[in-house]
Amino acid sequence: MEQLWIKGERRLQGDAFINGAKNAAVAVIPAAILANDICIIENLPYIDDVISLSEAMNELGVKTEFLDRHTLRIDSRNINNFQAVYESVKKIRASYYLLGALLGRYKQAEVAFPGGCNFGVRPIDQHIKGFEALGAEVIVEHGMIRAKADRLIGTSIYLDVVSVGATINLMLAAVLAEGTTILENAAKEPHVVDTANFLNSMGANIKGAGTDVIRIIGVEKLHGSTYMIIPDQIEAGTLMIAGAITQGDVKVCNIIPKHMESVTAKLQEMGAEVIEGDDFIRVRSTGRLNSIHLKTLPYPGFPTDMQPQMSALLSVAKGTSIITESVWENRFQYMSELKRLGAQVKVEGRVAVVEGVERLSAAEVSALDLRAGAAMVVAALAAQGESKITNVQYIDRGYEELEVKLRSLGADIRRVQVSSEKKVPRQRILEPVLEKKII
Ligand code: EPZ
């Protein structure tokens, strides 16, 4: 088991380069199934979710090969299996995209109920409703979701909730359907747009991604494509907050500042100095920031995936902050861990009241899920003493070498092996792949 040990109260300073977006990567990789050709996906983050997903694709007969750490070649010409079993998808929530992609291309798919982060009920009724509207029969039994159709026929689908996953999954299922599909009340997240752009680069006809009405005119087939995915807005936001909480000066580079607007606005409201360039944002702060009120919302609102890291920052702000989580019903579980670091928090349903304290104090805390883990790292960077963060595997699902980036900014952080049970370092998983000659 690995832990992150962090000696806090070091001011972070310098440039941090942001990797490709996890939530775009986990949609774009399965989307390549639709091509019956070779796709090259560039700028992928080298994280456990991407590795697990490419392994799950191999089980279907797709050939995936890392050409280098951030580039994946996907050959979907020889798919011979339409079933993704629990063993291969249990670690990845986004495995549900295999359903839309397989259904879209083969009119049949069987995928085990997804795993992934644990913060309450994570229904997929809107995905199923959409598949059915397109003409599929969907049965959920024995932990598997089975979808089958003779033909998929475009139609109008109104999503009852704004769902990133349902929007993307229904685009995947509809690109090769007959006729036109209209998705109403669609999600507008940058990774929705990125997936649509990738599909269009393969010959799909999708218009309106990034607005709440997406129009998909079915095409007969798609072809291979080389595509570079967008930078990760949540990794960028996490490092911006790491800069702010250590009263530092951090420039996040290689990003799309437009995607960061809600985070930038909140940091400015708190009193941080935020300087924006074409592809970077620099965050400077020289003292304790002010409290604010915050509500998570679908894009372009404040992202739920930044809520835990922002709560960590607010825990040392001057005054009382009120945080409302409106996307997930149970995303404050990590507050118990934040309290162990000295935060003063009261949670009442979907609302948390954070009374800013002058200083956090180091403790051993657990990363309860991916972003909760990121929040622990951010809080520990500001805490007095040495904190130990357990369950680091959750953080590795979504951040590529977070500790290396933080160390280069001046953090005192190290990854420590604490038991005899050795995890194979991720570099070793990649090496044999890179040794092979790539044709
Ligand atoms: C995506 O999850 C992200 N994951 C999540 O990021 C993120 O928190 C979430 O969107 C919201 O932005 C990926 O992109 C892989 P949703 P997703 O469907 O698509 C309800 C991270 O930390 N809902 O947009 O699964 C649902 O309960 C992860 O990187 C239904 O009711 O989320 C929730 O309240 C964690 N029925 C809301 O909609 C459905 O069929 C939004 O969920 C689907 C969703």
Predict the CATH topology of the largest domain: UDP-n-acetylglucosamine1-carboxyvinyl-transferase, Chain
Strand content: 15-25%
What is the level 1 CATH name of the largest domain?
A: Alpha Beta
Main sheet characteristics: 4 strands, mixed
- Give the helix/strand class: alpha/beta
Number of helices: 15
Which features characterize this protein?
UDP-n-acetylglucosamine1-carboxyvinyl-transferase, Chain, 2 domains, four-stranded mixed β-sheet, 15 helices, 32% helix, disordered C terminus, binds ligand EPZ
What does this entry look like structurally?
With about 450 residues, this protein is of the alpha/beta class. A hairpin with a 2-residue loop joins strand 4 and strand 5. The strands form six sheets. It has a four-stranded mixed beta sheet. Strands 2-15-17-16 form a four-stranded mixed beta sheet. It has two domains: about 1-20 and about 230-415, Enolpyruvate transferase domain (UDP-n-acetylglucosamine1-carboxyvinyl-transferase, Chain, Alpha-beta prism); about 20-230, Enolpyruvate transferase domain (UDP-n-acetylglucosamine1-carboxyvinyl-transferase, Chain, Alpha-beta prism), CATH 3.65.10.10. Helix 1 (about 20-30) packs parallel to helix 2 and helix 8 packs parallel to helix 10 (about 305-315). The chain is built from 15 helices and 24 strands. The longest helix is centred in the middle third of the chain and has 13 residues, at about 235-245. The chain has helices at about 20-30, 50-60, 85-90, 95-105, 125-135, 165-175, 190-200, 235-245, 260-270, 305-315, 335-340, 370-380, 390-395, 400-410, 425-435; strands spanning about 1-5, 15, 40, 65-70, 70-75, 85, 110, 135-140, 145-150, 155-160, 180-185, 205, 215, 225-230, 250-255, 275, 280-285, 295, 320-325, 345-350, 350-355, 365, 385-390, 410-415. The model is unreliable at about 425-439 (pLDDT under 50). Bound molecules: ligand EPZ. Ligand EPZ binds near residues 117, 126, 166, 371 and 398.
